[in-house]
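Hey all, quick one. A colleague (J.T.) asked me to put the flavin-adenine dinucleotide job into the tracker so the inputs and the structure tokens live in one place instead of scattered across chat threads. No bug as far as I know, just bookkeeping. Sequence used:
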Amino acid sequence: MAPRFLLALAICKLIVTVGLNVEPAELLQLGVGGGLLSMDRPDVESASLDFGMMSRVEPLAVYHPSSADDVAQLVRAAYCSGRGFAVSARGHGHSINGQAQAAGGVVIKMSSAGPAAAEGWPAPRVAAEERYVDVWGGELWIDVLRSTLERGLAPKSWTDYLYLSVGGTLSNGGISGQAFNHGPQISNVYELDVVTGKGDIVTCSEEKNSQLFHAVLGGLGQFGIITRARIALEPAPQRVRWIRVLYSNFSSFTRDQEYLTSLHGEPASKKFDYVEGFVIVDEGLINNWRSSFFSPRNPVKISSLGTDGSVLYCLEVTKNYDESNADTVDQEVEDLLKDLDFIQTSVFTTDIPYVDFLDRVHKAESKLRSKNLWDVPHPWLNLFVPRSRIADFDRGVFKGILGNKTSGPILIYPMNKNKWDQRSSAVTPDEDVFYLVALLRSATVSGGGGGGGDASRRLEHLVDQNRRILKFCRDEAIDVKQYLPHHATREEWADHFGDERWARFHRNKMEFDPKRILSTGQRIFKPDFGSYPNTALSL
Ligand code: FAD
């Protein structure tokens, strides 16, 4: 069907659904450029759910743009239509709580399974001399990597998983073990093209339209749709020395992590390139899906380490290298490890190509998919915990609420606040060093974690545990901030941001998306056109 006809149908239905006070003919005159507006069931279905698989909210239609102009025309149509209608960009749909949904409105599909260029979107353009790449906002990081590697370059800051869109991670932060050194991905962007909630296409950077630039970075999709990002690059290393060591003592573990991440200002030879860690609450988790490291034929047995069987902590570090430092990498690693206080018999080392390291989670994904364990509910909880309270968190959560079964990996690693630009919209705790604690749990039948046998009871059990963790933090006055936040009320959102930041966030919303039509799935601002739908747990 012709796009215009489909748009007419969709708009008529929107008028019925949300009571727009404009004529369809008026809206049609605005047009939506060369994109395709689809109300096909498979399109609508796939835009209704996300990786979390915990809420299901249908848009009226899905828009497939072919350019930034198309995105702008659709947003302008929504902005100009009486009270407006919801428009959410969807990257790879890897949110947990419906953040890319658009109840009764239009989801703009910014990403596809393959490179953006295959869909007719602009291909990545590498400026090798200047060390940056310009990419379409819906490009997946794996495809950004592939295109920059052709020129021997790579982005500096990563997420652990690369099948996420550039616009999706830049709307949050984008963190991994490089963040202590380079900052999150939002600290490694030079320029953006953004379609604001009024449908204007604006180029912004530190120098140009800086208010919009900072607002959009970490802005949860509230101020505009990123159609192009200019990302900082560095020469790509060839290989990675990847090391894991274990601790039974939490304070030694965190002391060493904080020591290693405090070395960010040192020359490359005197620091690791990546510092993460995870908590091992039960035997199953040492060889967890998040990164296939220990050989399946030679699994690590916690009992063999001579600890008393309580919680263990795994520090994970890497050192990048290429021909220029292949001769010295062993010594550099040894020098860094010698001051650490881990269980001496627990050093595990492997050596792999840089790309394989960056793409490590995808391998695990393939394995889980083959066992039907990927497309299951994921009640994930990501928290930033201030350094001063991480030991209390360990006591109350890892050694308390979680019991001895967890149902998924638990990541923990510190970051330096001075690597986060305070002008961005991202929210972090009020301390120089804070930890990411990521509880990445799945509600599968065989997932363990208490709560009985079937998946829905397990999901309820894990959701309840998440509530208890948040309550514990409130009761103990541990001022955690949710990363990839999900809050139910305006008061909770205001509290999440804190007075000053909330005022700024609100001001920016009024300026860049005054009708509050963008990314309504985040449930921060009540849109002009109505209330949020009820999103009951669907599974
Ligand atoms: P979507 O879920 O599609 O969208 C997320 C939000 O961003 C929505 O509000 C949406 O409207 C908005 N949005 C999407 N595209 C745009 C755009 N172009 N312009 C403006 N707004 C937009 N995060 C980390 O930081 N580090 C990790 O290591 C990490 N690992 C992960 C591993 C897995 C398996 C999963 C499922 C998630 C992981 N995440 C990680 C979280 C992930 O970064 C966020 O959920 C991110 O938003 C997902 O990107 P997406 O493209 O799927 O976004």
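Adding what we noticed when we looked at it: The radius of gyration is 23 Å. The chain has three domains: 3-112+508-522, 116-235, 239-482.
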